[in-house]
Amino acid sequence: MPPAVRLLAIARAVNQLGAFTLPFLAVVLTVELGASLPVASLVLALFGVATIPSRLVGGQLADRLGRKRTIVIGLVGCAIAQILIALAQDLWSAVAAVALLGLMFEIYEPPSQAVVADLTQPANRPAAYILFGAVMGTAAVAAGLLASLVSHWNLRWLFAIDAATCLACAALIAAALPRHTRTPKTEPERVPEVGGSPWRDQRLLILLATGTAFAVLYLQLTTTLPLTLLQRDLPASSAGIVLSASAITLVVGQRLLRARMLRGLDTFRVMTLGYALLGAGLLANGFARSLSTFVGAAALWSLGQLILLGHTQAIVASVAPEHLRARYLAAYGVSWGVAGTIAPLVGIQLLAASGPATLWTACALTAATLALLQPTIRRQLTQTTQSRRSTSGSRTRPAA
Q: Where does the UniProt annotation locate this protein (predicted)?
């Protein structure tokens, strides 16, 4: 990777050391602050709603203030919110802190993703995003073990540790990341933008719809999986062990994904494989009763996540005009805010009403549907791109 991308990966790895707080947020709300499961689901939904403007603000700031400044602003804001959660003495103060965390939480994502896209060629972007995820996965191994140990003592310390790592990451970015990360060697724009707005690009809207469905599934693993473990009579600390197993899989899986078989497949066939692995792991969550079975399930859904996260970001970056790349990535990132609102409301309510088997079977069926839709999505994106090229050519053709 280019030096700036390597630096960003190292900084995010530092941040990842304390980034295991969200899976324990529902536990803190219910166990320590006395919230019921329905109330906890509403608080987590509030967090999801708050992340929607957070992403959009991050994209706007990245294109106006620069990648570096925006990343630092987002990380410092996250640290302040995490400290407030750790110090919360009642449910309402925790709710306010959770809302603030949501508003800050996604600001640094669009500029971080844009830095990777700025400095890599299209053919290398999936590998760059996957490798970026694997570096963060290495730190997540230690983070999961740390979370498992600290959760035996006091869950609030997890939020204090996360705040400290956010500040350390911000300091590293401020000191060492170049102010200008765009390179003049990036590929020329192949398709002109429409009106300068990502919201008018039909390709992005297609990706946004499927990305939201994927994000809903992904977020079940940080909202309802810890509660599922509790329902299976496993201690809260087991969530840290399962997530550590997931992180190890991300590291090992990054090497497996270099296999010739995967390199010979096009992007959307690889995406189909990713959804199949994700669905198998989610289905296993619904019927697992021992910690070892949950760990085995984590290996499956983590491989699926690794494939899907790397390739979806690369697809979005490839359809975006270079000067609007951060805004496209931010617009696509709205899927996570929408999913953050839907996932806890649907997931926790379904878990409380019908139990783990129903919840995770529904998730697996959704993943299977997304796998079957990939050929259709590829066809729609290709047709829309060709139509835009044709329209652009007719507008610029000189008169006879």
A: Cell membrane
pLDDT tens, position by position, 29-76: 887 787 787 888 888 888 878 888 888 888 888 878 888 899 899 899
* Chain centre distance of CA 168: 21
Q: How far apart are alpha carbons 301 and 278 in whole angstroms?
A: 4
The CA–CA distances, whole Å, from 114 to 61, 147, 214, 309 equal 12, 30, 21, 15
Residue 217 maps to a domain = yes
Secondary structure class of 308 (helix, strand, coil): helix
**What is the CATH classification number for the domain harbouring 223?**
1.20.1250.20
Tokens at 28, concatenated: 């803190």
Q: How much is the pTM? A: 0.67
Domain that holds residue 363: 3-175+196-388
> Would you say 25 and 42 are in contact if contact means Cβ atoms under 8 Å apart?
no
DSSP sequence for 223-254: HTHHHHHHHTT--TTHHHHHHHHHHHHHHHHH
Model pLDDT for residues 167-187, shown as the tens digit of each residue: 988 888 888 877 765 544 444
Classify residue 189: in a domain, yes or no. Answer: no
Instruction: Provide the number of structural domains found in the chain.
Output: 1
